[in-house]
Specification:
Oligomer: single chain
Largest sheet: 5 strands, antiparallel
CATH topology of the largest domain: Aminopeptidase
Number of strands: 20
CATH class of the largest domain: Alpha Beta
Number of domains: 3
Shape: elongated
Helix content: 25-40%
CATH architecture of the largest domain: 3-Layer(aba) Sandwich
Distance between the termini: 99 Å
């Protein structure tokens, strides 16, 4: 009967006035009930009064029910498509809800762009540029800054609506204060952040010295990389070297190669920044500190006629064995390979076997004698393949095996095409290129045949049966993989 509503000094406070009112109401109700009982029990019309009261109560209840149904206060009795919540969830959304869900679930098509622009080095300049991109519904996925003496070069990775022309993006960037804007399409590989990409390139270079030109190309974007030896392989004259710290001249950077030559990187459409120059120089210095190195795996193959050969990577340590193969080759074979005087053949070997200029595969017999060499050479923006097979080992499938592996390496390195320079009379080289099963282009330049193969995304398989790690039988020949040889 009491109601506690608040506390004073930590002790509850009771409403005594409310208790008094409630007791008075109770006494009043008892008095009224007693009076009614006395009236009905002792009065002459008591039973009739009770019957009349009951009829009035029933009539009142019936009228209230009729009135509630007539004015919609009671629940409807017909099927109004009302369902329990669990049944509605099982049935799925309505037509309007489904239309709204579809509109939200289907995003607009977008494309990735790489954009570089120069902005003023002042507070708020970058915010103005980002605001201009946001108004076009362009999402900034990553941002790199390259400080300059005047201004800052900002490199963006953008996700923009597919129907937004690049001209409008560059126009808005220019209005926001960007100058020298350059933009090109990007792909999923650009979603990797810069530190992760640089570490991956450094790992590739550390494992294989021939990866350095490819790593520089991926680090700096679309550019032309040429490696010049310290001395010309023909004249023997010393080439013009680069400074110890390298040199940066707008769109050209020159770096000192580990073996003493020069690595020239050109990008005519976009100047290099000091940050890019520092990254490239650090990658070259890492290559120089690690020294000459190549992967030391080898494959033991079986030729169709039953001879066993080994295919492995070669480098300058195989120079003497390669010269010995030259001595066993006929002048005609050397002339088809080097397109010049036979006496100059040995001069090219140091250049060809150096990992700085590409990759070399050697075919070795069971006695350890090299009988074939295949070269994959980085030539600026293009990639060249070249073969030399000793006379006694020609027409046995050695050349086809080498060319297949070289093209596989080129495809894995991201090359779009490879070309071979030969003579029309070199039917073995022509047959090996045709055996790749790739689209070929033929051109005659000054009496020399140039065959260009456009590479496919899937690597070209080996032309001879072999297996990585397990022996097996294919076409009646046995193939096993030998253990990697130690340097």
């Amino acid at each position: 009967m009491t109601d506690v509503t608040r506390a004073r000094h930590g002790r509850p406070v009771h409403h005594w006035r409310r208790d008094v009112v409630e007791l008075a109401a109770l006494f009043t109700a008892v008095a009224v009930a007693d009076g009614v009982a006395q009236l009905i029990g002792h009065g002459p019309d008591g039973p009739a009064l009770l019957v009349v009261s009951a009829v009035i109560l029933f009539a009142t209840a019936g009228f209230h029910t009729w009135w509630a149904r007539r004015h919609g206060h009671a629940p409807p009795t017909g099927d109004t498509d009302a369902r329990p919540l669990a049944e509605e969830r099982a049935a799925g959304p309505s037509e309007q809800e489904a239309g709204a869900t579809t509109a939200v679930a289907v995003p607009k098509p977008t494309v990735l762009w790489r954009m570089r622009t120069t902005v003023e080095d002042a507070p708020g300049s970058l915010a103005t540029l980002c605001t201009a991109l946001a108004q076009r519904q362009v999402d900034i996925l990553s941002l790199q800054t390259h400080p300059l003496a005047k201004g800052t070069v900002d490199e963006f990775l953008l996700r923009a609506p597919a129907d937004l022309p690049t001209a409008e993006i560059t126009r808005d960037v220019a209005r926001a204060g960007g100058t020298g804007t350059w933009i090109e399409r990007a792909d999923a590989h650009d979603l990797v952040d810069a530190p992760t990409r640089v570490l991956g390139l450094a790992t590739r270079t550390a494992l294989d010295a021939s990866e350095l030109p490819l790593a520089l190309r991926q680090l700096l974007g679309r550019c032309t990389i040429r490696s010049l030896p310290a001395r010309s392989p023909v004249s023997g004259r010393a080439a013009e070297g680069a400074p110890v710290e390298g040199a940066l001249e707008d769109t050209v950077m020159r770096l000192r190669a580990p073996e003493g030559g020069v690595i020239t990187v050109e990008r005519p459409y976009l100047p290099f920044t000091p940050t890019e120059f520092a990254r490239a120089r650090a990658l070259v210095e890492l290559d120089a500190r690690l020294g000459p190195r190549i992967p030391r795996g080898q494959d033991l193959l079986t030729l169709p006629e039953g001879n066993a050969i080994t295919v492995r990577r070669a480098d300058v340590s195989d120079l003497e064995a390669a010269r010995a193969m030259h001595e066993r080759c006929s002048p005609g074979t050397l002339s088809m390979r080097y397109h010049g005087p036979v006496g100059d053949a040995d001069r090219y070997l140091s250049h060809l076997l150096s990992p700085s200029f590409g990759r070399t595969l050697a075919v070795q017999t069971a006695s350890g004698r090299i009988v074939g060499l295949g070269h994959l050479l980085w030539d600026g923006d293009e990639t060249e393949v070249a073969l030399l097979v000793e006379d006694d080992w020609q027409r046995r499938g050695v050349g086809a095996e080498l060319i297949g592996r070289l093209v596989t390496m080129a495809a894995e390195a991201g090359c779009e095409s490879v070309y071979a320079v030969t003579q029309a009379s070199n039917t073995g080289m022509v047959a090996a290129m045709r055996g790749l099963g790739l689209p070929l282009d033929y051109q005659i330049e000054e009496g020399v045949l140039v065959i260009t193969a456009r590479l496919e995304p899937t690597p070209v398989a080996s032309r001879l049966p072999y297996d990585h790690g397990q022996g097996r039988v294919q076409n009646g020949t046995r193939a096993v993989r030998d253990q990697p040889r130690r340097p």
